[in-house]
Amino acid sequence: MTTMIKPMIVCGLLCIFHLSSSAQKAGVPNNKSPLALVQTVADRIIRETPFKFQLVPQPNHPQFDFVQYVDFGKTFGLGSPAVAYAISQFDSKSDTSFMIQVSHNDALKIWVNQEVVYQKEGARPLKIQPRERDIFLEYEFPVKLRKGLNQILLKSETRGKEWICYLQPKGALIEERKPWNPDLSIAKLPGVTAGVAKLSNWLVAGPFMVSGKYPSSTAYGPERGFEIGKLYSDGMKDISWTIPKLQIFADVINPQPYWGTYYNWNYHAGGLAWAMSHLAEASGQRKYEDYSQRWTDFMLEIKPFIGYQVKELNGFQSTHHQLFNTPLLDFTAAPALPFVYRLVKDKNFEKRLEYEAFVNDVKDYVVHHQIRMPEGNFTRETPEQYTTWVDDMFMGIPFLVQASMQSKEPKEKNALLDDAARQVLAFNKQLLNPSTGLYHHAQYSRRKARLPYWSRANGWAIWASTEVLLQLPKNHPLREQILAAYQRHADALVKLQDQQTGCWHNVLDRPDSYDELSGTAIISMNIARGINQGWLRKEKYLPAVQRGWNYIASCIDPDGTVHKICVGTMSSENVNDYMNRPTADNDSHGLLGLLFAGIEIDKLFRSTL
Questions:
Q1: Do 139 and 267 share a domain, yes or no?
Q2: What is the pLDDT of residues 535-561, one digit of tens each?
Q3: Dihedral sign computed on CA atoms, order 348, 352, 356, 359
Q4: 207 preceded by cis ω (within 30°)?
Q5: Dist. CA 148–CA 42, nearest whole Å
Q6: pTM for the full model?
Q7: For residue 206, which of 236, 240, 235, 229 has the smallest C-alpha distance?
């Protein structure tokens, strides 16, 4: 047996720095080690990340697929009872009916095509609450639109303390454009020019004030029709149509359409900062640690300002808005990894108390407030209540492991690590198909569905498992069960590797789906980690890592540009949603796994030489 193994290993070693023909065609230097090659990627990231904001006009999206609002208070002021009007038009592609949700203070009346569709009188506080991927609004009502233009008129009251109205189509999700939704715009109102319509989706008129009584029962001029160049009156002053007060927002510089920038607040940008810290340790180069610390320091520095944009300027889709009140692991535990990792490895630095406070807030959310299934694993309210996503193995479990390492209390330390171990097995029960050894991307609690075996999702699963195994004591009662599951998963994945290219396809069991970098990098990294840790047999799994690395290297240009990364996606039962999902260059969804892959595979290759 030994005489057969040695030639195979030697043959494999000859391939380590002699990349496949596809890699050579791509111009990849064939004399770079995995660590050196991913450093070219990291160097490009450093060059292209300014950690600065620019000022931009208030975002104005005509499509009615998320929250629209009219802030009468900032436009007309507060302190006295008053009413004001707002007018716009729905431009519908067909005759349609749907539900609209609203939240407002005090009285509100809404007309669509001159018919009252909603009315509430009396004083009331405003209720609005950010959730996972949507905004909770308090009331809802049906509306019917005809094909073409449909006028909407709002009449809003204030009793002096607050004055704003929010509305959205029921089912609206943050950052999800729906082309079938109607537009909401003033562009086709008579006399409104394109320049004015670009500034706002609403015209407003007010404030109308009547001394001695609440004014909502009084019908003022705008209820009798819209006309440019006509003055209205409340008996004390003249009033005309105008636009709501505009705000200026801070935004990132040069965001990419699918994935933003490397200094957005999300799990893949935060994961990339975490990877940079590991790269600094592996390479001995301080610049990568400087990047990671600049990322975390930047987030702490801007957080008060981001809170102002979200809470005071209604920037629910503004940059970094997920820093506030977003109950989703993608924007809590996962991007906190570089924070907690720095606390683990650096016992004395200037901002340590700020980091500890930040991490403690995230830990409190993860342990006490994040939604879980009865088995204890993390779950979500989207797209259905409740949906367990395999992504959340990576979004939450590594944070639990790192928080355990950072904790100074033995009881808490053990509880966090135990939670991480139990979660792996609970996710396996929910999502792992024992007949294939693969993870479905998600599963619903109220009905069973066979969602596709997405490559990157399986990468998240195997990665979370190895993070637990790295820290779990050898005598832990769940260790052998987790290790066995990891080994079965690795075995199932290796069987689906494309033997010619070395990739794993975007849909693992569909060789007709495209070859994809992020899943290949994460899977290769975690198989290499298994060999390095003695969990997997080198003679069996080393060739898979070598093939995987050859594919990975073929996706990297000499300047550090990385190709073939599947952009982020919602879960879906339709495999074509994964087959046809776009790819993007340099997307941080893929780069965080790529950097870790270079580190782990380099370690493996050096130990094998």
A1: no
A2: 999 999 999 999 999 999 999 999 999
A3: negative
A4: yes
A5: 51
A6: 0.90
A7: 240
**Which residues 6+ apart lie within 8 Å of 228 measured at CB?**
190, 191, 192, 241
Give the CATH number of the domain where residue 392 resides.
1.50.10.10
User: Cβ(82)–Cβ(207) under 8 Å?
Assistant: yes
Amino acid at 175: E
Q: How far apart are CA 332 and CA 396, in angstroms?
A: 9
Tell whether omega for the bond before 338 is within 30 degrees of 0, i.e. cis: no
pLDDT tens for 471-504 read: 999 999 999 999 999 999 999 999 999 999 999 9
**H-helix or E-strand spanning residue 605:** helix 588-608
Give me 326's structure tokens. 């977003």
Q: Closest Cα partner for 366 from 439, 420, 319?
A: 420
Residues 429 and 350 in one domain: yes
Question: What are the tens digits of pLDDT across the range 206-260?
Answer: 999 866 565 567 899 999 999 888 899 888 899 999 999 999 999 999 999 999 9
How far apart, in whole angstroms, are the C-alpha atoms of residue 188 and residue 446? 45
Provide the domain count of the chain: 2
Closest C-alpha among 370, 398, 541, 514 to residue 456 = 514
State the DSSP code for 365.
Answer: I
- Write out the two tokens for 72: 């009468």
